[in-house]
Amino acid sequence: MALRARALYDFRSENPGEISLREHEVLSLCSEQDIEGWLEGVNSRGDRGLFPASYVQVIRAPAAEPPPPARYANLPAGGFEPLPPPVAFKPAAQQPPPAAAPEPFPLPPAAAGYPFPPAPYGGSYQPSQGSDDDWDDDWDDSSTVADEPGALGSSYPDYEAAGGGASGRYRLSTRSEPSLGSRGGAGHPAGHPHPPGGGGGAKSSATVSRNLNRFSTFVKSGGEAFVLGEASGFVKDGDKLCVVLGPRGPEWQENPYPFQCSIEDPTKQTKFKGMKSYIAYKLVPSHTGQQVHRRYKHFDWLYGRLAEKFPVISVPHLPEKQATGRFEEDFISKRRKGLAWWMDHMCSHPVLAQCDAFQHFLTCPSTDEKAWKQGKRKAEKDEMVGANFFLTISVPTGPGASLDLQEVESQVDGFKAFTKKMDESALQLNHTANEFARKQVTGFKKEYQKVGHSFKCLSQAFELDQQAFSAGLNQAIAFTAEAYDAIGDLFADQPRQDLDPVMDLLALYQGHLANFPDIIHVQKGALTKVKESKRHVEEGKMELQKAEGIQERCNIISFATLAEINHFHKIRVRDFKSQMQHFLQQQILFFQKVTQKLEEALHKYDSV
């Protein structure tokens, strides 16, 4: 007889792979052995997944029994604050609970042994702390914005594309409705068998296994849940991200309204009657022409939201934080240049440039705190993250639009090798440029000024000769000494003009190169699931239709990955072409200045 359990409390799923429970609902268990406080089973609606073991009671007798009151005796006597009431979970097929059912009493996570779920993709990113632009209570308070009408989470059961919803909103789902008794579920942790007597023929008995490492990027990004068919949500027309076929393969559809944004005039400002100081940067987007002021913490918040929302897009890294010297002129200037590079890459990306959170960041008036907080909370409540993010990606269809998995894998492997080599080369160039700049600022300047000082000493010695015909020579040698002093100063100042911009660009691209291993890991994880599903089909353990669904969803991730790779190469060629031209132009100007100083000294000897 299959293991069964009764739900003691309501539970609403919040992460891919979880299922929702209703109080008194009877479930089928896959195994009585819990996985770090979680059990796997199938609820009364046929959804299969994980739920907290402390929220159910295993039924050991043939007849179902009501939940024993003794369960509540295990609650701690004060020490825990009850969880806030969960959001109502109302699938279409669900009937309301009996009128006599008692109110649910949710256990606190700490008391119930409820494991803390893995953080969403990007959740490991830490916003700037007190060492660099403190988070102020008036900016990051606990106020919230009401949810948009009809905005549903990914935990709702799937339906066909909604035809009666609001205009421009479509219900998309990767789940399938199997025939009665043959629901294969969305997979299960390796090592845990299906429930005995689960029903179904041989082709529905196998599922693609889940990754054992639940903290891998493939899992945390929602890629696994999407590929396994667990994503479901409403997608607005404005949320769609289109991949098109270009001359170099898949590409992101270009932004129809491109723009740029300058970052100017960093100024020191104060608040709380001068008790707190910070640097504000003036931003002027070209598509609005309206200037706004943003602090580094605003950039920091935006980066965190974008890194979480876009798992297959390389969000450029911000300039590094600094605990001390934040108000020094050199640091402020260097940070402004780094933010300018960051902004250029944001505006140049077809997807990031049109993101609602980025547009709110660029256009919300600096003085309207209420509007800023509302837009901030809306971005933080975005439901198109995790597995649901992949629902927003629209890929080419029709003849010639399909991807060959082997070719995709070869391209991704080639790009992986490229990024590894580029990262090594960027590190080497950065080290060489930094060392050369140090020598110019200290060693070269000192050496040229030593030569100038030696010429000056010679001139002073010659001045002891009071003959009139030697005066011209003495003056020429003294001028030569001054020329070498000036050349030393030119060497010390030159890195600001040529080497520093190169190192700023390398720093930006090192951030991109650090992003791509995670992006590639998501795509590789999807390919692994496709290979596993094909093996099940060959062994007669999985229906072909289900395996094709997995491959179709893998293709979406592959299209997006290849589009991001092509964008990276396109922007890389643009940036390095421009920067190398600038470097060489500055080098030419520098040596022209040096030559001019030497020529001026040379002409002094013509009249001797």
From TrEMBL:
GO term, biological process aspect, one: mitotic cell cycle
Q: Where is the composition biased (Pro residues)?
A: 85-120
Q: Which residues cross the membrane?
A: none
> Does this UniProt record's set of keywords contain Glycosyltransferase?
no
| Binding residues for a 1,2-diacyl-sn-glycero-3-phospho-(1D-myo-inositol-4,5-bisphosphate) | 295, 297, 335
Here the segments flagged for biased composition (Acidic residues) are 131-141
Tell me the superkingdom of the source. Answer: Eukaryota
Q: How does it sit in the membrane?
A: Peripheral membrane protein
Q: Which SUPFAM superfamilies match?
A: PX domain, SH3-domain
Q: Name one Pfam family in it.
A: PX
Q: Which family does it belong to?
A: Belongs to the sorting nexin family.
Q: What protein is this chain from?
A: SNX18 protein
Give the species this sequence originates from.
Podargus strigoides (Tawny frogmouth)
What are the top taxonomic ranks of the organism?
Answer: Eukaryota, Metazoa, Chordata, Craniata, Vertebrata
